[in-house]
Amino acid sequence: MINRVILIGRLTRDPELRYTANGIGVCTFSIAVNRPYTNQAGERPVDYIDIVAWRQLAENVATYMTKGRLVAVEGRLQTRTYETQDGQKRKAVEVVADTVRFLDRGPGTGGVERTQVSDDWDSLGREVDPGGVDLAEDDEIPF
Description:
By secondary structure, this protein is mainly β.
């Protein structure tokens, strides 16, 4: 079975970084993704997708990303249930990010900034260098 999600959208708010009791970073943010059609009023409906990033990826996202930035998110779809303070059961659907990439110019940069932040593990479960962020400048954007 395959559970893979790729989204491109703009951050709706600045990412929020917290830490678990064990000191593991967890960052939450949401992106606005346009649907590929227009409605009767000529507008494109928008979906707001919640994203969760863990560990080094969470810290990198919180450090380098801000509201309004255009990003690509790759990960898996996850549903979870929880109980509110007043005892109601709720369900949350979110994307657990493996990779997050900037797709627009960063503030104060002269060229196009393509930044990729990814978790410490690749898609095959092998550990990769958690040394930080891969910054690359390129005159061509694939979109």
